[in-house]
Amino acid sequence: MKSYETVIGLEVHVELATATKIFCGCTTQFGGDPNTHCCPVCTGMPGTLPVLNKKVVEYAIAAGLATNCSINQNCKFDRKNYFYPDLPKAYQVSQLYLPICHNGGIEIDVNGVKKVIGIHEIHMEEDAGKLIHDPWEDCTLVDYNRCGVPLIEIVSEPDMRSADEVIAYLEKLKLILQYLGVSDCKMQEGSLRADINLSIREVGAEEFGTRTEMKNMNSFKAIARAIEGERKRQIELLEYGKVVVQETRRWDDNKDTSFAMRSKEDAQDYRYFPEPDLVPIEISDEWLGEIKNRQPELRDEKMLRYESEYDIPVYDAGIITGSKRLADLFEETVAICNKPKEVSNWLMVETMRLLKEEEMEPESIRFSAQNLAKLIILIGEGKINRTVAKEVFEKIFKEDIDPVKYVEENGLSMVSDEGLLKTTIERIVETNPASVQDYRSGKEKALGFLVGQTMKEMKGKADPGAINRILKEILS
């Protein structure tokens, strides 16, 4: 059997986090009853005219700058013509001839090997509606709420050679967009979707093979399986002397296979021409400079700063900066309590444990930096011990309660009366003579038992260090 190389390029569609659509004032909010977030403009009624949303242009420029693209300061929109029920106008406003960004790239790291994935272009366009297939009525319904939601399409070069490289590229791209604030990238809501262009060629060959496209993939796991499935399918075709047909295919994740949808269209099939209802966009040096100055610190720079400024382990810095929500929470909490290592520990251990138990993503964290900082301060001041702190943190995680009020209302403050503590320990020693004898015989575990019994008697509201000290004094 011959050796084959997989060649992959991606077209990533990103819904932008603007409040209104690209050419009208309708809301971009996800959900809502069908056809309630639309108007004559986004449903293509005759006589309506589009008005460009300035924020869409700024978000596209920000994404281009963050992915090392050149910005076309004079660009324009084009009409992409096709008849399909999800586009009532029978055309999509997009950019073919002069996209807003081009010639960029981002660096990925797969198993310690770094590689730059080129970005051919980023262009702005409007989203289409959504088709809903009703098997009961045997019909297809259309919801136009999504029509006109602003998109950027990020078109990579065919530089990826494996599913691992594709996932690394998508994960990095997703983080960049989230840090910029240009999109929430919620794949389950369609805010980030990828079209996979894949071909096979013999190892050492210079020419690309015939590519196929799998559209609208919105799960990293499904993307990895689809790449592997399509790679095997194309290799089998070539091994049996057949040809790969250029076509659009649909990946069925439940059946772990893909199906042909239609022959692949080329640009000429869409009859592109300049959009007559929108003037060209001119991006001044001043405007571009303003957007550059607003660019936030991205993940790679943030990781380096965390290691040097906060002196937290590289692994911890990687996990925390791997989510914008976690990174924001970390920095906001540290700004209040000035205990970076403590904050890192609470995020890395208890927060991660509860996220796993609740099957939540970090972006879904609801508790505030203020309440986490208050908890850390309570521990530092010796007002609660760590056992109680873990109990209180669960309430913070689930309900974002004020830990100071919760500790006070539930009588969880640590007992600081050493006289009461000594009396309790003496009673424990008196009622556990066997453990006392074991300890005096050199069995250190017996001390742990006596500490545990004391903590139980004190309902967890004592300082284990103080218990250890008093116990040793009494037992010696």
UniProtKB/TrEMBL annotation:
SUPFAM superfamilies cross-referenced by the UniProt entry: GatB/YqeY motif (SSF89095), Glutamine synthetase/guanido kinase (SSF55931)
Enzyme class: ligase
The enzyme's E.C. designation: 6.3.5.-
Catalytic reaction annotation: L-glutamyl-tRNA(Gln) + L-glutamine + ATP + H2O = L-glutaminyl-tRNA(Gln) + L-glutamate + ADP + phosphate + H(+); L-aspartyl-tRNA(Asn) + L-glutamine + ATP + H2O = L-asparaginyl-tRNA(Asn) + L-glutamate + ADP + phosphate + 2 H(+)
Molecular function via GO: ATP binding; glutaminyl-tRNA synthase (glutamine-hydrolyzing) activity; transferase activity
UniProt keyword annotation of ATP-binding present: yes
Signal peptide as annotated in the record: none
Highest taxon, organism lineage: Bacteria
Pfam families, per database record: GatB_N, GatB_Yqey
InterPro entries linked to this entry: Asn/Gln-tRNA_amidoTrfase_suB/E (IPR017959), Asn/Gln-tRNA_Trfase_suB/E_cat (IPR006075), Asn/Gln_amidotransferase (IPR018027), Asn/Gln_tRNA_amidoTrase-B-like (IPR003789), GatB (IPR004413), GatB_C_1 (IPR042114), GatB_Yqey_C_2 (IPR023168), Gln-tRNA_amidoTrfase_suB_CS (IPR017958)
Stretches assigned to coiled coil: none
Any one GO biological process: glutaminyl-tRNAGln biosynthesis via transamidation
Keywords: ATP-binding, Ligase, Nucleotide-binding, Protein biosynthesis, Transferase
HAMAP family: GatB
NCBIfam families linked to this entry: gatB, PRK05477.1-2, PRK05477.1-4
PANTHER family membership: GLUTAMYL-TRNA GLN AMIDOTRANSFERASE SUBUNIT B MITOCHONDRIAL AND PROKARYOTIC PET112-RELATED, GLUTAMYL-TRNA(GLN) AMIDOTRANSFERASE SUBUNIT B, MITOCHONDRIAL
Family membership noted in the UniProt record: Belongs to the GatB/GatE family. GatB subfamily.
Assembly information from the UniProt record: Heterotrimer of A, B and C subunits.
Function text: Allows the formation of correctly charged Asn-tRNA(Asn) or Gln-tRNA(Gln) through the transamidation of misacylated Asp-tRNA(Asn) or Glu-tRNA(Gln) in organisms which lack either or both of asparaginyl-tRNA or glutaminyl-tRNA synthetases. The reaction takes place in the presence of glutamine and ATP through an activated phospho-Asp-tRNA(Asn) or phospho-Glu-tRNA(Gln).
Official protein name in the record: Aspartyl/glutamyl-tRNA(Asn/Gln) amidotransferase subunit B
